[in-house]
């Protein structure tokens, strides 16, 4: 069933027509956040000696410009404008009440020399670098303990030149964990919009210990075989709104995290109130939307809608393991289309390594109140593998209005889970075939309380109807 372009184009049109709007509960904190702020003071990077020839290193120019603009922080803030050109730089730090704005033909380029990316302490919720013990390279654009920060442009570009870092990773010659393109820590009122991010050495956009974050109208690009080039990674952060993004990369398109094993448990800062909408993604080795595997601080109140996942390994994925502790609960994912995806839904209770040998093997994660509904997929390998943990059944896993055109003769494989399903094609696994009268605890995405599953299910259009209509359209 590989009529790829016509099939998927028809699918997108059809799902766009029926796509429902977010509830006011999930979107209220997005609406309260301003994506643009007037800055009374503005300078251009060339005023500080920067040369946009793609060869001259401009780290000092960025640092000096931002140092100068700090004097306007209490006068309405300031803007640093990057005009057309190719601006090579090492890592630099932002300040509060700042807009970093790129011209449509501006490209900020990360230096190919690791010495131009400073080494900083590991995150306290990870206890070490994510790849190696010890410190980690600072992101290209970095900030900590900031407020009112905007990184934007007329679709200008931030290019990490990650190929050399990927080679070091594959050759095991890294001394420290690879850097992100953008990382903001302990910060509030952050907006990242209208930019293209390319070839990140590691994860692309990483808000960690942040609140009130908008990421919108962003394009993220990296080769499909590039290692760990996650797109957008909210980590131990709250009130995060991600919308209208296109991501094509080598790992998870969007992944929510909250710390790693005993360090995440001790730091105890969850990710919550995460809204995701209108995302198109293609990933070589990850999922369209993922949670974990680092989720030891807890993850809850996640709502994702309007996802289009193509040519990818996984569609929807939750990753955890014994020793993680923490929880993933109150997750609502709906209105999803998939095309040429190897596995539509995966929940894995035995995923990933540990930071060291000091983790508590008895720290079992709680996975509950997960609702996935209104999903249509064509050219799907396996419908789902849903695996809990011995002595730690994952509960209230609810799947409804899902219709997948699956290649495998064994579409579902489930163990150590409990939940409910309705209107699922091919028929879901036995563990989810509870009688409707006995199951009324499916999370509807509107609040932290579980609600009746029947109300959620019967008020939505049937995915099997959607798929049949789609196939009729394609056959014309």
UniProtKB/TrEMBL annotation:
InterPro entries assigned: GH28_Enzymes (IPR051801), Glyco_hydro_28 (IPR000743), PbH1 (IPR006626), Pectin_lyas_fold (IPR012334), Pectin_lyase_fold/virulence (IPR011050)
One Gene Ontology MF term: polygalacturonase activity
Domain of life: Eukaryota
Signal sequence range: 1-27
BP terms from Gene Ontology: carbohydrate metabolic process
Coiled coil: none
Hydrolase listed as a keyword: yes
Keywords from the named record: Glycosidase, Hydrolase, Signal
Family statement: Belongs to the glycosyl hydrolase 28 family.
Protein name: Pectate lyase superfamily protein domain-containing protein
